[in-house]
Structure to design on (194 residues):
């Protein structure tokens, strides 16, 4: 699932009656699991100057990066962290880890070849879904449309929760980018071929 979708869905599902601080923790937790992927991409593209195909077909699967990505997407690690945070009364950190778990649960059904090891370090098991949020060979045309529609439906609820116009502007921008992206990559590129 695309990282901005996690932001929208996590706030819609977790942030309805929470303080602004909790919403910040949920926001950070919704995006934190994907942070190593962004770091990987910046290193591969800007430092190593690798071509896109090599970045995503080879470098992404190197054990170093896969272990970091697996750790950031680990449901058990986040689940263990929550009671520790609650014991020490780090309430915002508990919200952050709960948001990370929700991110992982939303990723499970939409990752095929790029499935994460959500039970690392206790298991290297990857749930290989028949669906993909990006790969047309695994129904991405429909998955991306579903993701887009769910973001559009969740947006009014999240919009009411946001306290600043900057945050509201980012939310609106996500919607606009998703609509344009879907039209560009799936409708006008012929992505509807079966």
């Amino acid at each position: 699932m695309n990282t901005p979708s996690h932001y929208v869905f996590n706030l819609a599902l977790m942030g309805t009656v929470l303080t602004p601080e909790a919403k910040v923790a949920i926001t950070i937790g919704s995006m934190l699991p994907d942070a190593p992927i962004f770091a990987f991409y910046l290193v591969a593209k800007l430092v190593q100057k690798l071509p896109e195909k090599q970045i995503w077909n080879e470098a992404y699967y190197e054990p170093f990066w896969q272990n970091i990505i697996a750790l950031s997407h680990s449901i058990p690690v986040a689940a263990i962290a929550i009671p520790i945070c609650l014991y020490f009364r780090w309430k915002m950190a508990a919200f952050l880890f709960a948001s990370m778990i929700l991110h992982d649960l939303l990723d499970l059904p939409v990752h095929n070849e790029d499935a994460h090891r959500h039970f690392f370090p206790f298991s290297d098991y990857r749930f290989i879904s028949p669906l993909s949020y990006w790969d047309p060979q695994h129904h991405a045309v429909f998955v991306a449309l579903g993701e887009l529609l769910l973001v559009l439906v969740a947006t009014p609820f999240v919009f009411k929760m946001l306290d600043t116009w900057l945050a509201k502007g980012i939310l609106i921008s996500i919607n606009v980018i998703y609509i344009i992206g879907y039209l560009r990559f799936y409708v006008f590129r012929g992505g509807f071929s079966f």
User: Anything to note?
Assistant: DSSP finds nine helices and no strands in the chain. The two ends are 22 Å apart (CA to CA).
